[in-house]
Model the fold of this input.
Amino acid sequence: MTADDSELKELRASVREFMEAKSPEEAVRKLMESEPHFDTEVWAQAADQLRLPGLAIPEEYGGDGFGLVELGVVLEEMGRALFCAPFFATVLLAAQALLASGDKEACARHLPGIAAGRTTATLAVAEDNGSWDPALITVRALPDGNGGWRLKGRKCFVIDGTTADLVLVVARTVAGPSLFAVDRSATGLSAEPLETLDATRAMARLTFDSVSATLVGADGAGGRIMARVLDIASVGLAAEQAGGARRCLETSAEYARVRHQFGRPIGSFQAVKHKCADMLVQVELAEASAREAARLATEDAPDFPVAAAVAHACCSRAYMVAAMENIHVHGGIGFTWEHPAHLYFRRAKSSQLLFGGPAVYHERLLDRLGI
Amino acid sequence: MEPDDMQDFAAEARRFLDAHAAKAPDRTAVTWGEGDDSMAYFSSLPPEEEAEQVRRAREWQRIRHGHGFGWITGPPEYGGRGLTAVHDLLYDAVESEYDVPDTGVLGVVGLGMIGPTILAHAQPHIKDRWLPAMYRGDAIACQLFSEPGAGSDLASVATRAVREGEDWVLNGQKVWTSVAHHSEIGLALTRTNPGAPKHRGITAFLVPMDAPGVEVRPLRQMTGGADFNEVFLTDVRVPDDHRLGEVDGGWTVALTTLMNERNTVGSEGAGPVAAALSPDHLSALMRATWTWDDRALRGRLAELLVDAMATGYLNDRARRTLRAGIAPGPERSVAKLMYGQNLTRAAHFVSECLGPRIIADTGRWGTYAWSELLLATPALRILGGTEEIMKNILAERVLGLPKEPVTTMAKEVRS
Done:
């Protein structure tokens, strides 16, 4: 299903209104220092009132059947507000991994709960070195002799890893990297919260000590599944980044209009004006690349993987530039804990490096272009 | 999906082009060492070849006009088709699939910027005289705006126009005037009231370029070619009916031209320089120069491609917005700024791959030819408004930042 322009506008307006009410700066600051890092009541409202978790889940699994374009609008708004919620891990990582696996039984078991907002989930891929490349993982899965599997090893940088009800894990079998589902309460699974650069996105280290797991999709299909999930997730992340970058630009422009120094608004100085124009250029490119990639995804266009790589690189840089310059435009006040600029800086840097960083995604782009 | 009438229009354009032109080869595909390796952004042709190119441009415009595609958005009473900007874009998209003569000499300044200005501001009989001729390819127009003392600060023009009976007498010097040496008419900004504040003392005239006292001297640019000129106006008599707009009201006229300039300049060309931003071409170049495995260069190539492709997405979005009947936002200005930067970065990236091979011509294909683009890049940050001017426009008009206050000293200097 695809929403038309006016429906997208409506969606954006209702999500923005929700964010303004439920995720103002005070709420973000309170949540990033509490455990869990999100408000379960607000999460339930996002599911019940706005049906956000199920937006892009197919109707047969209890969702509304929209795609990445609509999801992008929601993520831009969440990115603007630094919304603390298990949305990214649950909807973009876990749900998309289930869908990419093609495992109808697993989808039927887990997706309706996710769509309804009752189940939160995450995807554990990276280990201590932070790489998302399935070829580099060491967590192993062994058959338990009864048709099930047991996981052994350690995952790191797992988003919402201490709170997710369902953990999807990429582990190695004889056939290669494969996807497994693990219940949060499974025996032998321990989760340890990590201190994070971006406190609005919780991360954990998970240790699997012979944990009972269910294979999702074909044995050895983990590489293919991950390629698809990373494309979708990086476009979702790109939307979030574009939203955050836009917010930084708006904050800077507003400040440059009203803040006076040397007897005039600082925005009238060409040096400041051009900084803001440079930010605008980055933000425009970011939005265009994120939205275009999302559009190509829904059309199932063959150049979607290229566009996804472009969006990931472009939005990572744009957000970083906007978040840095935002602090600079604000001067000394921008460097204080009280000012929200550092929250965006932290989110921007953390998002830029989440899936491996520029060197990794630049090579991914070149690879997709056959270079 | 295009609405029906759009599909009909596109089909009509295809029929016309099929009958008059060949399909264009894919300019981004590359077989190393084969074909034309020119990377010229500005022409550096010998005069006789350039004259031949201008002749072919006029001829193609005449054919195009004869079949209803010469002035798609123009009013029918002046030979236009009376259709929308969307039709215009659609025709451009279809025509780009064909190998047709480059009509930039007519189009970029004359048809893109001065035509709409004449339409908006000239007297009816002047429109009758010049508009059909321009869009038929008979009259090329140039923009007599910039002066040695008035580049980006256009309102500082000093060329004088003094009224004598039914005529005006023009004296002064214009500069950086593209295609003046091929032009039949020029749109001149002149100072008619030195006592008024600088924006309010300007008047615009249409100057026949064969009028006595008009002297065009080619100006050689750093690429070696001579695309633009100095134009000296010495006691040039222009009848009052060639005035556009009110006396001392020329700034309004200039704004019409400049508004159209932003719609014209900086759109991505499909000419030889398209190769500079083509992944296939750049990767072939890395193979040919044995820089394939250089990690630093690979990283820079990726960044370059990210920018080039994101700029393309921005243009796509602007076109889609326009097609939906909504005026685009700042996308075009951002894309113009990025296009110049992308080409500049590509030229410098390539020169690092080539190393010494771009500083002396060994005769080898695809190496020294890039020096043509390299030398053109500084101009990309100046033409159509310097980067600084473009950024001011974005910051002030899109972000609403305040203008730079005019200091007392600047006021004194200007008055």
The longest helix of chain A spans residues 222-258. The CA atoms of residues 148 and 214 of chain A lie 6 Å apart. The mean pLDDT of chain A is 97.
